[in-house]
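Researcher: Batch entry, complex prediction.
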Amino acid sequence: MNDTLDRKIEPLFKVIDKIDFVKTDKQLLGNGIPVYAINEGEHELVKIDIIFEAGEWVQKIPMLSYTVVSMLCEGSTFHTAEEIAEIFDFLGSYIYYNTQKHSATITIYSLHKHLEETLQLIEEIIKYPLFPEKEFETFNNKRKQQYVIDSQKVELMAQKYFCRAIFGNAHPYGMYPELKDFDKINTNNIRAFHSQYFIAENCKIIIAGKIDDSHLLLLDRYLGDIDWQKLVVPTPANHVIIPSDDKQLTIEKKDAVQSAIRIGKQTINRYDPDFPKFQIVNTILGGYFGSRLMSNIREEKGYTYGIGSGLVSYKNAGYFVITSEVGKNVTQEAIKEVYFEIERLKTELVSDNELEVVRNYMMGNLLRNFDGPFALSDTLKTILEYDFGYDYFETYIKTLKSITPKQIKSIAVNHLEKSSLYEIIAG
Amino acid sequence: MIDIKKFSLDNGLMVVVNEDKTTPFVAFNMLYDVGSKDETPDKTGFAHLFEHLMFGGSVNIPSFDEPLQRVGGENNAFTNTDITNYYITLPKENIETAFWLESDRMLCLDFSQNNLNVQKNVVCEEFRQRYLNKPYGDTWLLLRPLAYKIHPYQWATIGKDIEQIENATLGDVKEFFFKYYAPNNAVLSISGNIPFEEVKKLAQKWFGPIERRRVPYRHLPQEPKQTEKQILTVHRNVPYPSIYKVFKMCKRLDKDYYVTDIISDILSNGKSSRLYKKLVQEKKLFSDINAYITGETDEGLFVFSGNIMSGISVDDAESGIDEEISKIKEGFLFDYELTKVKNKIESTIKFSETNILNKAMNIAKFELFGDADLINSEFLNYSKVQILDIKRVANELFVDENCCTLYYLPHE
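Model: Structure tokens for the complex:
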């Protein structure tokens, strides 16, 4: 082989040490709706998020928020469901409807040349939806059937009982719908929810892509009018977390060949100054392909196709969870290894090498969150929910750079006490 | 429009580059021209198992992932019937790390029995997780052998069964590597913030010294024309019946490919498409129905898959599909509908061009088809399709003798 290279030596690399935050321009529409504009990219297209403070947090009936936002396109005063679908498809505009814990969002992907017609129809379905009985029935029956199919999946079974256990079934973060809940939704409560929450005062907009004033003028023309102000802002709802006393639960599914595992607990969220540190601990444990859980349980033992951990932040609380689906005959062995890895974090110091890998990996990921207009708009959506500015990420970067193995150990000791962890197994 | 420049090395490696200065990242994609179609019937699932082994360290570098994570990179891979594709995204400053890692595992893998044993377990768990432990999960394990009797598309990429994966030996691994993982059997594509000249320099430095290998000439057994309809009925522990109807379609490079894809869009792309409008909204026969094409290199499949609404008979549901097929065959189609589908394709293509990883994967695929620049005539190819083409292709495609039906039913 004519190879004079020394392939054992890795090439020089640069550590990312800063990120240029793209300036976001905030303006108000005529009716006071804030619009955050991210002018990035060279393609003639935009992504728009129209966000309402109308998520699961404020719904009184499970799935109501999702049903309302998804049914906006099922008929308006001026167009039938069929016509609406025809127009959006003809324009090549992609519209997605989505509900989270605190928000209901309509996301639009449109080419510049079709933006005006798209927004025209968006105005209509937001302001004047009809929620026809017939379309609702079809929608609900479809969803019910999908629910029954999903109920057979072990990972969803485990997820359901895990969230219930740590937050309590009455809390929006712990709520998981039952089949009978579909029958509680009707066009009356759909309409009531819509008129209470889909109003200008409850709305914010993010627009991202190659944009100029003309696009902002379009937003103002179609969504900036005062005719959908209500002047009554919904009063914030309050919910109490009531975790279950039982920390262990096994749900049996006879024909399963794998078990789904959830191990975790309720914990701090983004408002807590420890959160970025906990994110680092989480990454080391199970947050990337080279994590300890993956290395041990997949790459050494071959017990699973995948295992990971996550730290999830909602506005009023957070949770930490380890998730995996493992062979039925190795479930107990896999769980034992999970606790072994948690203990190791609490008793041993992380090596400088491992910390360097995790640090640089996380910086790379952070940079990804700012790469291109679509990623930028997702990132902005997240921090707006907490009323943070980009300085949140400056703190995050500082933490990432300065954290020590000792601090990592102490975060693990404080947040990963074994007796505080819930353990749910389905399969 | 994607701006493409390319060159090849003396060892046969094709390199395709798209410079995109709007991003701080580079997407680095290595496509190997080997898929599950290159397996033998007694060793199915091997190409995919092999993909897992590619992450177990190479001759000079004990770990693939760790050095990449250390420079802020991400990576993964997939295998399908036709190709095996490895991809990396990383900050542009650190692009050389990708060349270093990817070239070393092309040079030679670290063949380790332990790694093989572990990855066999991992893949078996993947098999269980994705195909055995999910409702309707084994659909494609049933459909492929129903549709193909001779061609290696008759088995799914994951493999026919778990046992064949368990039987793989280190000898198989070595043989497979030297047979297919050669510079002259690969396309390297790069999209992102890197000058073309730098790619040239780095490609020559890291891949240039790897020797050309003897890659076997591919002569796959061709599937004879199907002459009678095929039917399979299975009972499983699922809550509702499902129906799958598949028709064999043309090869990927056939001129009728675009017509066939447009037919699937008319039937099933978006909420205004025919199947959704008629069969879900209006007649309420299905809770969910789709039509799509597999679009493989050799004759692929045009697939209808529908989950039947509770209380509806399988016969009624099937008649619903058949009626929609008849309408297309009769040429019942308006210009407006065709324009709508073309608009949507235009939009999809434009949005896909905003993502460097998408671009890198796609230009590699088109280079494999013969020329990366072909990607820029995709929209033109779709826009040329006329109503008469649709009628003609639908009549060739949707005939009983060309159909395989799978009834996937709950236990009685």
